[in-house]
Amino acid sequence: MKIKIINKSEHALPEYKTADAAGMDLVANIEETIVLNSLERTLVPTGLYLEIPKGYEAQVRPRSGLALKKGVTCLNAPGTIDADYRGEVGVILANLSNEPFEIKNGDRIAQLVIAKHETVEWELVSKLSDSERGAGGFGSTGRNN
Question: So what's the architecture of 4-16+26-116 in CATH?
Fold first, then answer.
């Protein structure tokens, strides 16, 4: 699949690091280091602009290593970039640790995954079919009581 992209950053285009990788790293495109204090959040620009084909979305997801090692994650994860959006790709980062975290130009800050999606047409009904689970939710599966 080909996706049109404008790169206004000084960094390379996102790329898959292994043959079976689902995500590509997004990097910070900033002029000055950002210090993200404990429990703060910020929008980090990437300098990238996408034209995603209809029927697809780009998902912005946390980097697992950043989340585990530094407590920094993406809010609104996965963040959806719709096919009709033409603005700059930004990453909402939050620092869930107790320590300040520095974001420098070129730092890998998130993953970008391209995913197909369906568009639904609602069918209004008065009853839904029965299922084994029924209306049980929020931890109800796998319990015997």
Answer: Distorted Sandwich (2.70)
- 29: which 2 tokens? 């495109």
The pTM of this model reads 0.88
38 annotated ligand binder: no
pLDDT at 19: 96
Domain ranges of the chain: 4-16+26-116
For residue 31, give every residue at least 6 positions away whose Cβ sits within 8 Å of its Cβ, in sequence order, or none: 105
* Residues 72-85 as b or e (16 or more Cβ within 10 Å = b): bbbeebbbebeeee
Judge whether 90 is annotated as a binding position: no
Spans of the chain below 50 pLDDT: none
5 is in an annotated binding site: no
Tell me whether residue 9 is annotated as binding: no
What pLDDT does 142 receive?
67
**Kind and range of the H or E element at 117?**
none
